[in-house]
Amino acid sequence: MARVPITKPSTFAQYATLLKKDLRREFRTREMLTSMGIYALLVIIVYGAALALTVRDLDIVRMSGGLLWALIVFTSLLGLGRSFAHEKEQGCLEGVLLVPLDRSVVFLAKATSSFLFMLAVEVVAVPLFFFFFMTTAAPAPTLGLIVVPLFVGTLGMAGIGTMLSTITMNTRARDVMLAVLFIPIVFPLLYACVTATTAAIVGADPWTDFFVMPLVLAGGYDIVMLLVCWVLYDFVVSA
Amino acid sequence: MNTILADIYSTVIPSAPFIIAAYALVWAALLVYVIITVSSLKKTEAQVALLEEAIARKAE
Amino acid sequence: MADSKKVKLPEAGQWPDRMLVPALALGALLTTTGFLLAFFWVAPVNGAKLSEPVMVGDVTVTHVQLLSQKIFYFHMPVAIVSFVALAFAAYYGLRFLTTRQQRFDTCGRVAMEITLLFVVFTMATGDLWTRFEWGVWWTWDPRLTTYLILMLIVIAYFVLRNAVDDPQRRATYASVLSILAFVDVPICFMITRVIPSSVHPVVAREGGMSPEMAITVTVVMVGMMLVAFGLYRLRFRQARLAERVEALKEQIEER
Questions:
Q1: Which of A64, A223, C85, C221 is the most buried (most CB within 10 A)?
Q2: Are the CB atoms for C125 and B22 separated by under 8 Å?
């Protein structure tokens, strides 16, 4: 009887497969992207009501960084909550865990797919925000640099959010629990990214203090938190 | 009291309530925690007594 | 069942408990001493400059004497003790994850309670100090913000513990959260401190402590550590007793 050669797929191949599974699923149903996109639009409409009386006197250019990041946080909470809901409903996560792989690969794949979805929503939400609130305002020439804090911040939020939504997946009141855990832990990252984004929009002076330093700190946060989550994910997902 | 002295100690009277409140809050919170712990301890000891009775009854 | 490596579990009623009463007594004594020192021995901190110096007793006084700064002698020690308690909670979380013994989960939970208690102290003293100094009830300065975040994370810890039913799973999630909190808090402090806030100036009184101030702070800090240790052992003893009662109840029902 011939022997069937069995080769264990490399870690990268495992990671790529899991990532492709998530992306394929999303492209077929487009469920999460559309709901996140509509949610972003709804938050902007709420902003419209909230700022209706003051929009003429308000220095919208200074506030836009903060408003933008609040929008991103709320949309991310929605997306992160959803990303594990269907895994639990269909029993997909249990299936994946049956494979003898390093659990941290699951973490990386999930975090990457959440990151990509959040980026996709931001590509839509940020121009939308500018369309609704900033057509009359005059941002500084460094406006294009807001891409960097958006990238760094979303990366950190995706990592921490994946870990936290794995934890809260099995609790009662899943979404509220996620928000209660996510917002305090992500606060330093949020703070740094808002500062950097506002600096880019406003053209802050001194530049290093308001743009470079917060980004360095946010990057440090990302690295430390992603490392900690990478190490601890095994315990969490096997519980 | 001349005005200079009054100026020196001008922060004392207005700040006194806050300082007293700060220390009093700390002391009160500590007391509350100790009271909660000790009352839980008493309740648990009462449960231990009940359990001992139950075991004694079952042994008969 | 061969235990090649026996894990030594923390238990109530061991040698630390014999130190419980002396520790609490010493702690109370030290904090009271520190309190008295703060008000009667340490020189008050100088505030705004007076229009002309004046003789009080036999000392030339040139500045307004601040009394509100006295809160600092309790505020900093409790802040440091709360962080130490958080470190212990994270340590016990790590030990639970590596050994899977429920006992460490109990230790971690009690340590988190002590953290919460001391964080509340920090917030109360800090907030009242800010109210007097700056006239506002809240400023987003580094210390207060970091402690608000810490308080929220610790409250979230207890909410999470309530929301999970399975003991093993609950302990795992709680341990991971305590480790995340321990890593997050210094980062939060660093970030809020380094990034300049244009609204409120950083309340910086840390620079330049006179020796008497340092002594008073150290006295109160050691006292508070002893109080925290005593409270931890007391609460741990009560928690262990409650656990043993539950185990006994189950045993009786099985028979």
A1: C85
A2: yes
**Is C157 in the B-facing interface, judged by CB distances under 8 Å?**
no
**Candidate from C156, C163, C187 with C-beta closest to A184:** C156
| CB C42 within 8 Å of CB C216 | yes
**Rounded-to-10 torsion of CA C150, C156, C162, C164:** -120
pLDDT digit string, tens, across residues A128-179: 888 888 777 777 777 778 889 999 999 999 999 999 998 988 888 888 899 9
Best of B2, B5, B11, B12 to mutate (most C CBs within 10 Å, chain C)? B11
3-state secondary structure of C54: strand
> In chain C, which residues have their Cβ closer than 8 Å to the Cβ of A220?
187
Q: Do C173 and A195 touch (CB under 8 A)?
A: no
Q: At what angle do helices A213-238 and A103-133 cross, to 10 degrees?
A: 140
Residue B57 amino acid letter: R
B10 domain-assigned = no
Q: Is B12 part of any domain?
A: no
Q: Which residues in chain A have Cβ-Cβ distances shorter than 8 Å to C152?
A: 180, 183-184
C chain contacts of residue A209, beta-carbon cutoff 8 Å: 195-196
Radius of gyration over alpha carbons of chain A, in Å?
20
Judge whether B6 lies within some domain. no
- Residue range(s) defining the domain that contains residue B53: 17-59
- Report how far residue C234's alpha carbon sits from residue C7's, in angstroms, rounded to the nearest whole number: 23
Query: Could you tell me which residues are beta bridge partners of residue C60?
Result: C55
Q: Collect all residues of chain C within an 8 Å Cβ-Cβ radius of residue A184.
A: 149, 152-153, 156, 184
Question: Are chains C and B in contact at 3+ CB pairs closer than 8 Å?
Answer: yes
In chain C the beta strands, taken as DSSP E runs, fall at 45-56, 59-66
A187: helix, strand or coil:
helix
pTM, two decimal places: 0.84
pLDDT digits (tens), chain C, 255 positions:
333 345 566 666 566 666 777 777 777 777 777 777 767 666 666 555 555 666 655 566 655 556 666 777 788 888 889 999 999 999 999 999 988 888 889 889 999 999 999 998 888 888 877 777 666 677 777 778 888 999 999 999 999 998 888 889 999 999 999 999 999 988 888 887 777 665 444 444 444 566 777 787 888 888 888 888 888 888 888 888 888 888 888 887 776
